[in-house]
Amino acid sequence: MIKLEDITKVYRMGEVEVNALRGITLSITKGEMVAIIGASGSGKSTLLNIIGCLDRPTSGKYIFDGADVSQLNDNQLAEMRNRKFGFVFQEYNLLSRATALSNVELPLIYGGGGRRPQRAMEALERVGLGARAKHKPTELSGGEQQRVAIARALVNNPALILADEPTGNLDSKTTAEIVSMFRQLNQEGITVVMVTHEADIASQAQRIIRLHDGEIISQ
Which CATH number belongs to the domain containing residue 179 in this structure? Predict the structure, then answer.
């Protein structure tokens, strides 16, 4: 499903170059649940952003589902992000004045398609929040807000869920519930790639990829 070949990412800050990724070669098979782990600054979020087409590598080759991502234009990348990927971040990134249902509808609005309220409600029910559909984020707990974010990621039936520190703002009990939800989604056939710095969370995945200073040191 995912094949990265000798991926590098260099950020230029004035005359200073920062090598965020140094020759990453990696394959992820459809249906896997993979954890990317490493200390702050190891390059794990940069790697996730490249996999999710939120950023382009400086060099190297990225193949997703047989397509060479470097050959896609911005509109094609945007369509791929909306239809193929579901994103879950540490910050829930919900619209504060919108209901849970309206937040989940957003990818459907951007991508077009009918049955928006029905599909959004189905996604909320899938994460156990159907009864909270009319509540706004300020009326929800942190764990419930993250469930809304997961429902939003699921609403377009993505092939791949990309989660960047999805439990970073949650207590241990809620963390266990969210990780269990990712495992359940993976068992249903969705590929999951999750970034974390916590070894106990990473241990829930089928495979752990360890990064250090922009390089894979084990997987």
Answer: 3.40.50.300
Identify residue 68 by its one-letter amino acid code.
D
Alpha helices in the chain (DSSP H): 44-51, 74-84, 100-111, 116-126, 142-154, 172-187, 199-202
Structural domain of 130: 2-64+74-218
Q: What is the pLDDT of residues 27-48, one digit of tens each?
A: 999 999 999 999 999 999 999 9
pTM, full prediction: 0.92
Per-residue pLDDT tens over the stretch 87-115: 999 999 999 999 999 999 999 987 766 78
- Judged by DSSP in three states, 108 sits in helix
Would you say 49 and 193 are in contact if contact means Cβ atoms under 8 Å apart? no
Closest-CA residue to 152 (of 190, 101, 197, 186): 101
CA distance 34 to 219: 10
